[in-house]
Amino acid sequence: MNTLYYGDNLDIMREFIGDETVDLIYLDPPFNSNRAYSQIFRDEKGNYPPSQIKAFDDTWRWGEESEIILDELRSPKYPPQLIQTLEGFKKILDNSDLMAYLTMMTIRLFEMKRVMKDTASIYLHCDPTASHYLKVVMDQVFGVKNFRSEIIWSLETVSGYKSQANKWIRCHDTILYYLKTDKFTFNKEYLPHKEEYIARFKKKDKDGRLYRDDRPGKRKQYLDETPGRMLGDVWNDIMSFQQASTLEERLGYPTQKPEALLERIIKASSNEGDLVLDPFCGSGTTATVAHKLNRLYTSMDLSEQYVEAARQRIAEAEGLPIEGESDWTEHAEDELRWLYSENKAPFKQLKASPMLLALFTSKLNDRLRRSVPYTPQEVLGQLRKMERFCKLNAQLSDRVNSI
Ligand SMILES: C[S@@+](CC[C@H](N)C(=O)[O-])C[C@H]1O[C@@H](n2cnc3c(N)ncnc32)[C@H](O)[C@@H]1O
Asked: What is the pTM of this model?
């Protein structure tokens, strides 16, 4: 089932993504606090939504949320090496933004491992600001033996404001590739041969096939039998939007990744019909490419505006309805708010009990008499969304916040 979720990926994975259901994960978390903050969208009045400020603070600033995660990681549910790693980092990083970031990433990576099938792969896109710490975290979550490659996505050109810096200019990103176990999908990919290589095949047989037989002791080699240039772990053939700012797929979001990058990863590490998860989906590149390659997708983002951008982009690519997104008219929102205020069960209980949630949903559907009733998942998603945007009344909002 194709799904696009709005909300914190940790909550969503815990609530909606089953154990061992995903074939491939690509994640591109924001890894530089200044840049992450610049991704916060303003609302129509030009203000930053408080929910997003809070969400970004929780990610980037050391605070109560980080302490809560550290405490949680001390529980026996988690392998002890996770908390040991973070405690080690804390000795050197103290209560820094980077420490907050690594803490929030560790618990999410553990959740990602849970949802991965044994045959699944994970690609973590990052940059040198945090890649060396993240690799240690990945080693602890997935196991050193499941490390596969550190891929360098070379951005080649050094241009624009970057070239002003008085240092070796950073012109690559790092993608850490890990497996869950040693049973995995990998479809080798090749680049077209270079002209110099093709020129070595000087002879043509009666069918017009090019070949060479000039290598002593080696058999005749046909050009069409050589699959192409093997791809290594340095990728310099995929342009970033800095290099190719006029590419049609470019939507203008600062962190949008090119479809060719996702195409390479998805083709290599999944097969048609497989499920691809992107927990930090931004403008929806992964889901769009997954769909184009006949894979299924599950994507999520904390920013309402990014989810909307992704929804539109995916809808354009596929022309299909998207689960988890539904039309909530003002009337439907009002009824939901009223029903919630009359309801004895707080949000936490609705979330924890499928039976209560189903009952609540059926009451709402009775009131609304919609031809297509809301699903419990849509109702829960809408309640959470209304809470974030302070659309539940103050008293209710407190109840939700206190969970
Ligand atoms: C670097 S961008 C991803 C860009 C994406 N790869 C693309 O091609 O458009 C990171 C995204 O992560 C989202 N994000 C940050 N923290 C999150 C969280 N806890 N849960 C879900 N999404 C989150 C941000 O809203 C942002 O859109």
From this structure: 0.78
